[in-house]
Amino acid sequence: MLELLAFISYLLTIYIYLLIAMAVMSWLIAFNVVNPRSPIVHAIGEFLYRITEPLLRPIRNLLPNLGGIDVSPVILILIIIFIQLVIIPNIAKLFI
Questions:
Q1: Which phi and psi (to 5°) does residue 39 adopt?
Q2: Alpha-carbon gap, residue 40 to 29, rounded angstroms
Q3: Tens of pLDDT along 24-71?
Q4: Vertex 42: Cα angle to 44 and 81 (nearest 5)
Q5: What is the DSSP track for 60-85?
């Protein structure tokens, strides 16, 4: 069971990296550094959007309108870190 919890923690870490990649990609598109019409950029952006949007959308719906600032990735990263540092170790203690 401990290996399963370690694997879940590893997957959560990968998801944090995907959230950071999505934020960087959105900045690069917003500042016209990369062309979103490029097939490779479009494929990467679409993949990141489909992976991150299901968890970001509910957070965005709860947050008030902050203008052009999207803090939902930061909030989701904090939630994931909380899960990794508090919830998973406490579940692991139950199996030791």
A1: -60, -40
A2: 13
A3: 999 999 999 999 999 999 999 999 999 999 999 999 999 998 888 899
A4: 35
A5: HHHSPP-TT---HHHHHHHHHHHIII
How far is Cα 43 from Cα 60, in angstroms, rounded to an integer? 24
CA 34-65-73 angle, to 5 degrees, is: 50
What average pLDDT does this structure show over 59-87?
94
Type of residue found at 1:
M
Distance set, CA 42 to CA 21, 25, 27, 30, 93 (Å): 14, 10, 14, 14, 44
* Distance, CA of 78 to CA of 62 (rounded, Å): 16
pLDDT of amino acid 67? 85
User: In this structure, how many other beta carbons lie within 10 angstroms of the beta carbon of residue 89?
Assistant: 11
